């Protein structure tokens, strides 16, 4: 468990870095990347997000951390677009704390403008539980951001409990199926059934589906058979630093 002090220091000393995990189409070309924060403490080395994101949320420091990740993602997306290296999107995780702020949508749009980032080059990942707190405000932000052209996805889908009625109210592009369901998709049983149902439902609503946590060839085969649109997981690549992401792009485009 981290202290608030060490988090403050890490922000001041710029100990955070953004890594990028590729997201592939069914045909195995890279359609997006998920931006994931990494903290390297000079003495203790790598500290996983699970060990500091909860504290960052409790202390409100997640607002600064989230802002850092969004700036990096916008800068990177603009750079890749300008260089003609990549025309897909970078997905950024949004915490419930950020989404609950009155100025959230304004700040996001302002950041894109600052880097002249094409709106469709950024996706915001929101969990079902982040929507629960103040659904009205969250819906308002997401509608505005979507109208601006930013992509919106529901992260860890299936683990929270958003009603279908509420999901329909949101302007979304993508559902990301939580890896807990993807784990069991290769064998016949409830997980495969659930994944199949999520995909049919998403397609009925006009949404694309990303399977997260794809680790085996058998899972990939099963997901293709269920018409899953996009795939992400260690089978393809771990989250990697920018230079390695560019290497993956040069191999795949
Ligand atoms: O990268 P890793 O799988 O270790 O991430 C663990 C958890 O931390 C995941 O739930 C992921 O969504 C979260 N996380 C990683 N980067 C960010 C970030 O930039 N912002 C927020 N809010 N959560 C993040
Ligand atoms: O909650 P969220 O979906 O944002 O979590 C993203 C996290 O999932 C990242 O920290 C990433 O390291 C992790 N992740 C990505 N692919 C895989 C995978 O194939 N298996 C496992 N176990 N974790 C993964
Ligand atoms: Mn995510
Ligand atoms: Na997820």
Automatic annotation (TrEMBL):
Span of domain EAL? 1-253
Name this protein carries in UniProt: Bifunctional diguanylate cyclase/phosphodiesterase
Source organism phylogeny? Bacteria, Pseudomonadati, Acidobacteriota, Terriglobia, Terriglobales
Which stretch of the intact protein is present? 405 to 657 of 678
């Amino acid at each position: 468990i981290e202290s608030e002090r060490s988090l403050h220091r890490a922000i001041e000393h710029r100990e955070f870095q953004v890594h990028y995990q590729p997201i592939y189409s069914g045909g195995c070309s890279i359609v997006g990347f998920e931006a994931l924060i990494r903290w390297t403490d000079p003495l203790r080395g790598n500290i996983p997000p699970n060990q500091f994101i909860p504290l960052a949320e409790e202390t409100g420091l997640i607002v600064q951390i989230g802002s850092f990740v969004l700036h990096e993602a916008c800068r990177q997306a603009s750079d890749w677009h300008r260089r003609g290296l990549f025309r897909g999107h970078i997905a950024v995780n949004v915490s419930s704390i950020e989404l609950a702020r009155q100025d959230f949508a304004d700040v996001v749009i302002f950041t894109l403008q600052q880097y002249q980032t094409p709106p469709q080059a950024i996706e915001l990942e929101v969990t079902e539980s982040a929507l629960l707190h103040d659904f009205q405000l969250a819906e308002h932000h997401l509608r505005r951001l979507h109208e601006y052209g930013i992509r919106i996805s529901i992260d860890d889908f299936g683990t929270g409990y958003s009603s279908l009625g509420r999901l329909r109210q949101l302007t979304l592009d993508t559902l990301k199926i939580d890896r807990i369901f993807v784990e069991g998709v290769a064998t016949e049983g409830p997980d495969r059934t659930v994944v199949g149902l999520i995909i049919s439902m998403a397609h009925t609503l006009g949404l694309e589906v990303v399977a997260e946590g794809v680790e085996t060839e058998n899972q990939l085969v099963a997901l293709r058979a269920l018409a899953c649109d996009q795939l992400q997981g260690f089978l393809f690549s771990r989250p990697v630093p920018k230079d390695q992401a560019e290497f993956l792009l040069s191999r795949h485009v």
